[in-house]
Amino acid sequence: MADILLETRNLHRSFGGVHAVRDVSMRVQEGTIKAVIGPNGAGKTTLFNLIAGTVPPQQGEVYFRGRRITAWKPHAIASLGIARTFQTTRLFPHMTVHENVMVGRHPRTRSGFLAGMLNLPRTWREEQETQVKAAEILMDLGLASHMKETASNLSFGRQRLVEFARALATEPALLLLDEPAAGLNIYETQELSKLILKIRDRGVTCLIVEHDMSLVMNISDDVLVLDQGRKIAEGPPAAIQRNPEVIRIYLGDEHA
Amino acid sequence: MRLRLYYPVIAATALIVALHVLLATTGKTFYMTQITMSAYYALVVIGLCLLMGYAGQISLGHAGFFATGGYTIAVLTTYNLSSYSKTPVVESLRSLGLLVSWQDLYGHEILSFSPWPAFLAAVLLTALIALAIGLPVIRLKGHYLAMATLGFGLIIYRIVLGAKIFGQADGISGVPPFHLLGDLQINGRPPFRIQNYYIAWAAVLAAMVLALNLVHSRVGRALRSIHENEEAAHSLGIDTYRYKLATFVLSAVLAAIGGAMLTHYNGSIGPSEVTVLKSVRYVAIVAVGGMANLWGAMVMGVLLNFLSLRGVFGSFDDAVFGTILIGIMLFAPQGLLRAPKLQAATALLSRRRRND
Q: Which positions of chain A have pLDDT values less than 70?
C-alpha cells in the first residue's frame, strides 16, 4: 500500500447553525486522484478550505505526511507543498499570464526585501530562473503563445488553465482542484481529464471536488461522497456507483 | 532587459545636472534651496507610493513618521549633555565616539550626539513605532491602517506641541550640519547650496533605484499579487501579513530619513511638519503621481512641494492639496500622468490639428 499523503481526522466546522462539515475522516494515498462528490451544500468546498487553511476547523485534525497542519495559515500550508485552484478562477487579472505563473514560484524562491532592493547577482539569477521555469510550465500546458497577454483578456477555459499552471509552479505534492470542470464544455472537460491524469503520472497527488460525474468516474482512483457535511461513502468509483445510499442522494428523493 | 529599468535614472541624472546649469546661467541658483527641500519631501512620497500603490494600504500618518525622524535627530543633536558629562553613561557614550562637542550660534559649548548615531537612532525608533502600529492593525482587513496612522499623527502632533523637550510651538532650532563623509555635509547655508542640491538628489535617486528594484523583484510581484487577489496570493505561499507589514515599516523608514535629512538641512523642525494636513498632502501627491507609479510620485513630490515652498499657492496651500486629492479621485484615479481624460484630450487635440 502506498504512503498516506493527507489525512483528516474527525474534522468539524459549522457556520452559525449550519454544520458544513461533520466528523469527516479520510485519507489520500500518495500518487492517486481522489474525488470529493456530493450535492450542493454537502460541504465539499468547506472541506477544501479546512485542508488549505483558509478556514480553521472547530474540531478534528489535518495531517500532511504525518505532520499535524491543523489550522496552519494558508501560506504555510502552501509552502509545505499543497497547492489549490478555486471554484471561481482567481487569477491576478492585471498581471500577464507569465507573471501570474511566476508568482506561483514564490514558495520555491527566497529573495526578500533587502535582496530585492539591492538586486544582488544571486537575486538576479533567481529571477531569471523564475522566468524560465514559469515559461516552461506555460509551454507544457500549451499556453506559450499567451505568455505576454494580460490574464483577464484570456478566455474562461484558458484562465482556468493558467490557474493550473500557477498552482503547478509551486511544485506541489498535493493539488487541490475545486470544481475544475465547472463552466467547461465537453471537449474542454476531456482535455482537462487528460491533463489531470498527466499531472498525476508525474507524481502529483490530486484531490478534486467535482460535479461532473463522467470526469470523476473516469479519472479518480478513489471517491469520497459527502451529504449535508457527513461522509456517507468512500471507495473506488465502481463501488461508489453501486452504493445504494449514493444512488438515493443523487437520484432518489427530494432531499437531493 | 533589466538595464532598461535604470534608463530613467540616467535621464533623471542628466536632467538634474541640466537644471543646475540652467539655474546657474540664469542667476537663479537660490531656487536650489527649495528644490533641495522638495527632494527630501519626495523621499516621503516614494515610501508612501510603495505602501499605497504596491501594498494597497493607506497611511494618513506619514507626517508623523517624518517628524519622528526629524525630531529624534533634532533632539539628539542639540540636547546639551555637558552638565551630565561626569556621569558614567555619558562618559561611556563619549568613549564610544557617539558624542561631539561643538559651539552653537551664541558660542556656547554643547556636548550632544553626533549626527550619524542620531540618524541611526531616528531611523530605528521610527521603524519600531511603525512595527508597533502595524503589528496589530495590518492583520485587520479594510482601512484600519489609515485610521490607526491618522491617530498616530494626531498624537505625535500633540506631543510635539506639548512637550518642552520638543520646543512646543517653536519647534527645535540650531540643529548642526550633518557631516556625511569628508567635506560632504548637509548644511542649509548658501555656500553649501550646490553641494546640498546634489546630496538631496543623490538620496532621492538612491531611494528610487532601491524602490524600482524592489517592485520588479519577487517581493514586488508578491505585493502586486496581494493587491490583485489576496486569497489567491495567500494560497501560493505568500505571507500577506508579513509583506504588508514590512512594506509599511519600509515606507515609514523612508519618511524618517527624509525628515532627518531635511531637519539638518533647515537646521530646525517645527510642529507644522506634523499636521494631518501634511499627511494628506503626501497622500494627494501619490494619487496625482498615479498610485503604483514611482516616477510619477517622485516627480509630483518634487514639483508640488517646490511650488508650495515658493508660495505659489499662497494661503490656500492646504486647500490646493485637498482639491487636488478630490479632483484626482473623481476624474483621474489612475493619476495625472496616466489620466484617460488627459489622453483623450491630447488625442482630440492632435486630431483637430490634423484636420486643420
A: 1-2, 252-256
Tell whether A133 is covered by a domain. yes
Query: Which CATH number belongs to the domain containing residue A203 in this structure?
Result: 3.40.50.300
pLDDT digits (tens, 9 = 90+) for B108-142: 888 999 999 999 999 999 999 999 999 999 988 77
Q: What percent of chain B has a predicted confidence (pLDDT) above 70?
A: 94
Q: Which of B6-10, B19-23, B33-37, B81-85 has the lowest mean pLDDT?
A: B81-85
Contact at CB, B237 and A79, closer than 8 angstroms: yes
In the listed set A140, A155, A170, which residue is the last one of a domain according to the structure? Answer: A170
Between CA B35 and CA B22 the distance in angstroms is 14
Listed residues A125, A144, A170: the one ending a domain? A170
Which residue from B229, B237, B234 is spatially nearest to A81, judged by alpha carbons? B237
- All three cell numbers of A136, joined, read 516552461
Would an 8 Å CB–CB cutoff place A132 in contact with chain B?
Answer: no
ipTM at complex level: 0.91
Chain B residues with CB-CB distance to A under 8 A? Answer: 2, 210-211, 213-214, 217-222, 224-225, 228-229, 231-240, 246, 250
What is the domain extent for residue A191? 1-81+172-256
* Shared domain check, A155 and A36: no
Q: Is residue A87 part of a domain?
A: no
Single out the residue of A225, A212, A229, A210 nearest to residue A43, CA to CA. A229
Concatenated DSSP letters of A51-114: HHTSS--SEEEEEETTEE-TT--HHHHHHHTEEE--SS----TTSBHHHHHHHHTGGG----HH
Alpha carbon distances (Å) from B352 to B339, B341, B342, B349, B355: 20, 16, 15, 5, 5
Asked if A206 and A217 sit in the same domain, the reply is yes
Work out how many domains chain A is built from and give that number: 2
- Residue A165: closest CA among chain B residues belongs to which residue? B236
Tell me the one-letter amino acid at A234.
E
Distance from CA of B2 to the nearest CA of A (A): 9
What domain count does chain B have?
A: 1
Nearest by CB to residue A75, choosing from B219, B220, B239, is B239
- Residue B39 belongs to domain spanning: 2-355
Task: Report the SS3 class of residue B306.
Answer: helix
Q: Per-residue pLDDT averaged across B227-244, rounded?
A: 94
Q: Please give the model's pTM, rounded to 2 decimal places.
A: 0.91
